[in-house]
């Protein structure tokens, strides 16, 4: 039987792959790591369905130069893990670098022995 520490280790490893794919733009990895019904709420409050999210990477419209997290806490429940922390994002839309600091929540579920993200939501930290 998997312990809470095992779940945290597995979800953290899946999250690391997800973060790397966000920067590399690897839609195939993101596809494998997101569950059917996945939703992504941007720090600007925009909402992407799984299809919209993946299409933005496949088309090249979404390109991050940094997508990293820290101060992460993972809580486990049967078949579910909820991850909270800080996310640091850099992107370059329309030729101007943007930096976003936000708090995030990522919800992971176990499906077929693999961990997949089912929801992400971030809230921008106002500029000081």
Descriptive account of the structure:
This protein has 128 residues and is of the alpha+beta class. It has a single domain, classed as Nuclear Transport Factor 2, Chain: A (Roll). Helices cover 29% and strands 48% of the residues. It contains three helices and six strands; from the N terminus they run H-H-E-E-H-E-E-E-E. The chain has a six-stranded mixed sheet.
**Shape type:** globular
Poorly predicted runs of 5 or more residues: none
Number of helices: 3
Q: Cα distance, first to last residue?
A: 46 Å
Q: Which fold does the CATH topology refer to?
A: Nuclear Transport Factor 2, Chain: A
Q: Indicate the CATH architecture.
A: Roll
Strands of the widest sheet, in order across it, are 2-1-6-5-4-3
Briefly, what CATH class?
Alpha Beta
Number of strands: 6
Query: Helix amount, in percent?
Result: 25-40%
Radius of gyration: 14 Å
Strand content: over 45%
| Domain module tally | 1
Structural class by helix and strand composition: alpha+beta
């Amino acid at each position: 039987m998997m312990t809470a520490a095992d779940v945290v280790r597995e979800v953290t490893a899946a999250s690391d792959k997800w973060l790397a794919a966000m920067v590399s733009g690897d839609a195939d990895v993101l596809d494998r790591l997101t569950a059917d019904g996945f939703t992504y709420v941007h720090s600007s409050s925009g909402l992407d369905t799984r299809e919209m999210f993946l299409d933005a990477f496949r088309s090249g419209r979404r390109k991050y130069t940094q997508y990293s997290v820290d101060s992460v806490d993972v809580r486990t429940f049967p078949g579910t893990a909820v991850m909270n922390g800080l996310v640091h994002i850099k992107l370059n839309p329309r030729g101007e670098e943007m930096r976003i600091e936000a708090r995030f929540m990522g919800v992971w579920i176990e499906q077929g022995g693999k961990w997949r993200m089912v929801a992400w939501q971030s809230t921008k930290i106002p500029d000081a």
